[in-house]
């Protein structure tokens, strides 16, 4: 009985049945199936929102545990939790508060939070990537000295110089376009097809309960 | 390598399945030696390299290969004398105790060649355990780090009769006999009584080689492996000069009293001191120790407590038949009246060498105190009258029948000076009595009525009360290993600390980091700060208008007033610095076209980004419909379902996933799918190219990164921020390419140089 | 004023993050944790506002049947945070997996496989050949490259003898060719990533310059 509850009911009732209904709604022009598809997809969106709540709860638990047990780096966890507790209030209150002045203030706070804290910090983290990528390109020949590595470096150099070619080197832009649209595109298309094939196979396995990532068994 | 049991393919160690046929591989295909870490086949019990034990002693018997029977077996100390042999029982008791105490210190010496110290207890006696405690026990478990040689020798050495069941005496298989004894006892001598041939040659006093566990090597360290007719030196000393008859070295069974027990007093010249004291007057000629003693295997002095030592036999007064063990009974003549205890000075452990130092011959009429104490007054029963012990029937050696074997009379013995080491072994009759009284009487079986019968259970399960055992001698190597182990165990347990933080980086790597940072900072800051200073910077590059940019422009150009456009802001603040510049010209174009923009996103931050961008482009008080739906492709599908039928979908993203979802879901709509225009990061140019392909047509047009945005601005003839940053981008690209070439040259030349060296 | 203060805060955070160039340090970690906490909290607020309050609560009153079932599933999903009762969330996860799989399947089939295979086949169509001077070469390269890349990643040839062995060698050769095309694809992607990150870096430097200029002028201007 426990196995029935833990294994088969989740798979058949909650995964296979809705999944096949949605698939039929996509493949069939039947409006009923289309309606069912839309409702099921809408329900999945709501459940996905709760999944986000679960993620936030997990962050609370992990970092709260670090603070509680005074583990290494607990002050940083404290900063994280304080920022988290403060940041979720203004956007939420925006929809709850009706008074225009308060709403305006909340808007300003939300924008300030986004534009002066989240924005600069996130962009700075992304900007650091250029140093890492450049350093790895600098050391490529130390790691792998082969014809493939030389070809790789050559392609990178041509594409970079062709993106904003110096005056007098406009032909580099044509070379860049050819590299991107012919061999590069062919390679990427092969990868894309491989990914799509894998998606199809995995999806069919999940829908027919051969693969149960959601179950303990 | 692990070989597959099915197909035989060698697989890397640690593999769980065969790489060829998929057969599950056995988890254990080898045993690692705990000492030398050599991998041994699973069936091994001992390491092939160092002979350490691989399988613990507690392992089931079936795992161990059959061990050879120990060649010599200790006479069971629990053999109780018969009721008629009261005195003999007492003697046997104290002898048994003596033997037992010596057995606690059992450590088989390592080498045959090591001479036994004069004050050392011989190994054969050392291995003698306390009464009732050693029979039935397993041989002591050798420590795993015992040297192979030692291990080998212990294997060869006769294990104590502790293995035997109590009271059960066995003859050692002829093949198991130690060398010295083998030579003494002919192979056909399977019973003590059969040891005949050497008797004819054996001279004097050969008491039974009582101890099976007395490695014969220790018994005669100084004596060569005696030929069957060879008598050890020590026994020569106690053998009467006229004892020409070979005293057979009875099979090394305790119960096999050597029929060739010392016949007479040893030759005066070789009589041990202690024995000389008790030797009869005619045994005062030490030189008379029978020469052919080399041929008479004379077992070392009685290692068995119950076996009156052979030294007692020749020179000591003949023990009363009632008390003398069988082996001695055969030695001593029937008229031997010396108390049995006399016959067994526990100098069984006195190797012949120890007996070597000359000792004053005791006065013929003087009986040593220790012997007197244990001698029963009425010990005059002839040997033959001793009632046979049922359990020992058929095992006891035959009484010596050879003529010439005589045992000196007590009155002929001179008092002996007892050495200190022997004095320490003086049995305490009261202890014997107490022990004897404490022991229960056996009520059933063959040994009914006897005291001190060992229980049927193995002795090691019974905690025995015994005296503190002397620690066995240990080799220096073993001591060193034990000390090392002790020091390791004494260290406090330290959990391995995972070092947080990175290891120090080398100066070369640090220089590379600084170089890259310096070059990039210089290239960007120099160009960006120039207008502020102000310094004019020449135009280094011009925007390149690609086909994708052109198609995007044409598509948006076709959007009319009141057309609904779905703008998907699938990026967050991290990518805003680039994608805001990408989205801005297209949004301006759409707003200029009068399109009805709806802002959608599957990311929570997407709406905030859109709001910030649109507030800078259009009127600040303009509100656009916005929807956020989580769930990746599911959210996109839901957004499309809610959007109705948009005229255009404009996707702004820096990740390949959202672009693919929007492209796929737009294609999945039942109606004619709307065109999709992409405003993607430069990183997505490769991923978007298959969709952007004219043959595919899934993305109508796209602009990629800063250069694409600058190109779109150029198309619209309204240069903006993207155009202003193009110079910096071009210089930055050149700096990166320069660093790449520098690094490639550096490492290529460095590698070639290293190879040349 | 508020805007200037906000800009200064943003610039300080930018510099704290850039301090990572010197090495990992507490200031960088402080800024990083502050950013993560603010981002998660902000996102949580958006989800609560737009989904739970905007959709669920609103429809709960208007059309309860449409949201009760997903709401119950969502609440069950929260039990995944408790290890002993985590199995209760299996139903919700199963629902998400089932619907998401179906959506992904239809998208992959209809949105990628069919159009892309068709596009590969049309590489040697007259329209394609006329689109550029090297149309036929490009078309051949596209077909060969796509096929060989797919063979290189999707198939591995087993060692066989005879005809199977010859075919295995052919597959191996095709896979090697496909790897060359893969190098092209990854090289372009790497260059694009460099360009994107450089663009963002340029934006940050510009931001710092703007803030410095703004603060400098405000201080000097009084």
Q: Give the strand content of chain B.
A: 5-15%
List the total number of helices of chain A.
10
- Rough outline of chain B: elongated
> Could you give the order of strands across the largest sheet of chain B?
7-6-5-8-9-10
Number of strands of chain A: 0
Radius of gyration of chain B: 51 Å
Number of strands of chain B: 10
**What is the structural class of chain A?**
mainly alpha
Return Rg of chain A in Å.
Answer: 26 Å
The greatest interface here is: A-C, 123 and 118 residues
Major sheet size, sense and barrel closure of chain A: none
The helical percent of chain A reads over 70%
Q: Which sequence of SSEs, written as H and E, runs from N to C of chain A? A: HHHHHHHHHH
Low-confidence stretches of chain B: 62-68, 70-85, 108-115, 131-175, 187-229, 239-268, 281-322, 332-362, 379-386, 400-404
Euclidean distance between termini CA atoms of chain A: 14 Å
Mean pLDDT of chain A: 87
Helix proportion of chain B: 25-40%
Shape of chain A: extended
* Whole-number mean pLDDT of chain B: 67
Q: What is the percentage of strand-forming residues of chain A? A: under 5%
Model description:
The complex is a heterotrimer of chains A (217), B (757) and C (222). Chain A has 217 residues and is an all-alpha fold. Among the domains of chain A are: 2-99; 131-181, no CATH class. Chain A is built from 10 helices and no strands. In chain A, α1 (2-27) packs across α2, α2 packs across α3 (74-87) and α9 runs parallel beside α10 (183-207). Chain B is mainly alpha-helical and 757 residues long. In chain B, 33% of the residues lie in helices and 5% in strands. In chain B, the strands form 3 sheets. Chain B has a 6-stranded parallel β-sheet, sandwiched between helices. In chain B, a hairpin with a 6-residue loop joins β3 (31-32) and β4. The longest helix of chain C is centred in the C-terminal third of the chain and has 59 residues, at 163-221. Chain C has 7 helices and no strands. The interface between A and C is large, with 123 and 118 residues.
